[in-house]
Structure formats: C-alpha cells, structure tokens
Specification:
The complex is a heterodimer of chains A (150) and B (283).
Chain A: H1 2-16, H2 49-69, E1 75-76, H3 79-89, H4 92-107, E2 118-119, E3 124-125, E4 146-147
Parallel strand pairs in A: 1-3, 2-4
Helix pairs in contact in A: 2-3, 3-4
Chain B: H1 2-15, H2 17-21, H3 30-42, H4 46-59, H5 63-75, H6 79-87, H7 96-109, H8 113-122, H9 124-129, H10 131-137, H11 148-152, H12 160-171, H13 178-187, H14 191-195, H15 199-221, H16 225-271
Helix pairs in contact in B: 3-4, 4-5, 5-6, 6-7, 13-16, 15-16
Classes of the chains: A mainly alpha (150), B mainly alpha (283).
Chain lengths: 150, 283
C-alpha cells in the first residue's frame, strides 16, 4: 500500500511538474455586482435655457420614475439619454422627432430581436448618430455584432 | 522504506526516458528554432512565430523566413509592418514577385486604393498579374467605373457571373429613397417603415399615431379639451417622428445594403486569395 502511495505521489508530481500551461499569476476577479444603470449626471446647465428645460425634465423623470422603476429600457443608450443626446447633437425639434421615433421602436416588443446589434450587457445598441439624417454618420453594424465601445 | 522509495524513483525515471535524454538536445539550434517557429506559425500563433523566426534570422539569412514573417504580420492585420517586411525581400530572390503581389493584396486589405492603383499602373510586372485587383478596387471607391467588358475581362469564366453582378450593383445600387420613405409615412403612418422593410416598426408607428389621434378626437368630442390637446400633441409627435424615422430608416437600410455588398465582395476576394497565387506553408 505504501509503495502504491509513493508511486502515485511521485507520478503526480512528475505529471504536473513544469506544466507551463497552468498559469500561477494572480487572477483579477471582481465579485462586485455590475452596475447596469448608466451613471446619472443630474447637473443643470443654467447658461443654455433650452438645455436647462430639457435636462430638468430628464432629471425629474430619472429621479421619480426611472431610478425607482429599474433598468427596464431595452436600448443602449436608454430612451431618456437618447433624447438628451439627440437634442445636443441637433436641435429641440429634430431631437424630439428622433425621440418619438425611438419611442415607437421601443414600443415594438416583437421586432427588436434580429434588428439591432447588442452591447456586452445585452441591451440593443441604437445610438442617435444613426438618425441624424446624415448618410456619412450612419455606421451600420449587423445584428449579430456585439458592440464593444458603446 | 528507503529501498521502496529508491525503487519508486527508479521506476518513474524509466517511465520517462525522454526527460533523461532531453538535456542533451539543443533546443535553440537553428533547425529546432525553425521547427518550433513553423509549428507556431501553423498553429496561427503568429506573434510568437515572428519572435522565433527573428531569433532564426539572427543566426542566418533566409528570404523565405522573411516572407513568412511578413505573411504572419499580414495575418495579424498589421498591414504597414507586413508591407515593410515584404519590401525588404531583395530583387534577386525567388520570392520577389510573390512579395510584390502580397503587397498589392495588403494595400487592398487596408483600403489604400490610391497607392494600389499607382503601383499597378507604374509596374508592368504587377500590371499583368494584378488586373483583377485593380478592377475590383473600383467597387470600393466613388470613382468612375470602367466599361463593363473591360471590367470583367481579367476574370476567369467561372467567376464572370459573380463579377458582372458586382458591377451591376455598383452601377445601380438597390438603395431606398429617404424622401420616398418620408412621403409614404406622411400618407399612411408606418408605410415608410414597411418600404424600408422594418415591418413591426411600421405597425407600431401606425398604432401610435392613429391611436392617439383617435383618443384626441374622442376627448374633444366629449368636451375634455385638455386631454384632447394632450393626446392631439402626442399624435402629432408620433406622426412627425414616424415620418422622420422612416427617412432615417431608409438611410440605415442603404448602409446595410452597402455593408452586405462590401462583405460579399471581400468574401469573394478571400475565396480567390485576392487573385494572387496562394502559398500554403502548413501542408
């Protein structure tokens, strides 16, 4: 029995010795729950009245509805962020039209899968740059893509 | 106990005879370095293969190894490094012509069509071999296309139909008009989205616009003016948003069509190895 144990020990040492495919470096695991909410910026821009009004509405919505309701928008950026970014990139009228269109697409519970690429956390990637009415700004990604730099 | 221990060590040592002899082998000899580098190369571990090939080149000169390094860079999509390495192959080498063709392929892959055309037209040697690449480069730019017959001439008969289709596509791409999509959605909400093949978006566009319009009408009818204006405003918003979104959707459709076309041409080129002779180092 002792002989058998010694053989096993020596064999196991020999088998696993100098096996460079086993890396002994420190593993950088994080057990922190990933924060799916976008980091909210509640600051207001007092210099620009248009932006002040829009941002106030968005802040109110975030504070009283969205943050309480949870991470329920299936898109990235979320509809409220999409609205803010749209207005920032265009103007209040075009931004609002883009938002209404986005809202219509968000209502669609059947056609989203297979129509949009996804970001790493599974949300559908749908940035305002696709809807600026500028063909050059449309960077198409097929639905099978996972967008990394969202 | 000691006897058993030594007996066990003896048995184990006999079981692994290669470990006893391995110390006698020079792992960094020229032949072994090349063998290991070739192994890494064929395993597609190109970065480490390049390191090993460079170690080999420190001891001896070899055009085929330089070629392999350049080839490995091209596989890693480090186009400029690859071009520079291919250019270092001397004119008297047997691989010189192949290296020049590989450079053309790399220029094509890196979308440097201006340089590609300059090289092909300046050098009669390349001109003879790289005419298909030159012609296909017109599919990726907005320059005027050559005549159809001239365009298809350098391709083999089995690829002719495919190339003709590419030519026709480029000549008259099946784009959707954003204006037409907007007008269609103005006539019937959601119709423009149907035109751009976003059917469910079209359905929801119709439901939201018409639904809120009906709610507005119904509330005005019942003398609920505030709600009438509220729903009326939302109906106008969704209606306008749908027109705008249909036009934008046509642009996205066009980008998709363009993307699919470019992917198809690139796949076609990959299948034919960019119409240059294929070298297989890992047979």
């Amino acid at each position: 029995m002792r002989f058998f144990i010694i053989i096993c020990l020596i064999y196991s040492i020999k088998i696993y010795s100098q096996s460079d495919w086993i890396k002994w470096g420190k593993a950088n695991y994080s057990y922190q729950i990933k924060d799916n909410f976008q980091h909210r910026d509640y600051s207001l821009d007092y210099q620009n009245p248009e932006r002040f009004v829009i941002k106030s509405l968005a802040d109110t919505y975030w504070l009283f509805i969205s943050d309480v309701d949870g991470d329920n928008c299936s898109f990235n950026p979320t509809c409220s962020n999409f609205f803010l970014q749209s207005v920032e990139k265009t103007n209040i009228i075009q931004g609002s039209l883009m938002f209404f269109d986005r809202f219509t697409r968000d209502m669609d519970i059947l056609g989203k899968v297979g129509n949009y690429p996804r970001v790493s956390d599974g949300h559908f990637f749908d940035p305002p740059s696709l809807y600026l009415m500028n063909q050059d700004s449309v960077k198409y990604s097929p639905p099978s893509f996972v967008v990394k730099n969202e | 106990m000691n006897k058993i221990f030594f007996l066990a060590i003896f048995i184990c040592s006999i079981s692994f005879p290669q470990e006893i002899t391995s110390t006698k082998t020079d792992l960094f000899s020229l032949a072994n370095t090349k063998k290991f580098a070739d192994y890494l190369f064929c395993q597609r571990d190109y970065l480490r293969a390049i390191n090993e090939y460079n170690r080999y080149l420190l001891k001896t000169k070899s055009d085929s190894i330089v070629f392999k390094i350049a080839f490995a860079y091209s596989k890693m999509e480090e186009f400029q490094n690859s071009i520079n390495t291919f250019q270092s192959i001397p004119k008297n080498s047997e691989l010189f012509l192949q290296a020049k063709l590989e450079i053309l392929k790399l220029l094509f892959q890196s979308n440097n069509f201006v340089e590609l055309r300059k090289k092909i037209t300046n050098d009669s040697l390349e001109n003879k071999n790289a005419q298909p690449l030159l012609n296909l480069s017109f599919l990726f730019t907005n320059d005027n296309l050559p005549e159809k017959n001239d365009f298809c001439k350098p391709f083999p008969s089995e690829d002719l139909n495919k190339v003709k289709n590419f030519y026709e596509w480029k000549k008259d791409p099946p784009y959707k008009s954003p204006v037409a999509a907007g007008i269609l959605s103005a006539i019937i909400p959601g119709l423009g989205k149907f035109y751009t093949q976003k059917f469910w978006d079209g359905v929801w566009g119709f439901i939201s616009s018409v639904g809120f319009a009906y709610l507005s009408y119904d509330n005005f009818h019942a003398d609920h003016n505030f709600r009438g204006w509220l729903f009326g405003g939302l109906a106008v918003g969704f209606y306008g948003g749908n027109i705008y979104g249909s036009a934008a959707s046509a642009q996205i459709y066009n980008a998709k069509i363009q993307f699919d076309f470019v992917s198809e041409v690139k796949n076609f080129l990959e299948r034919n190895n960019y119409f240059i002779p294929k070298i297989n180092f890992c047979q």
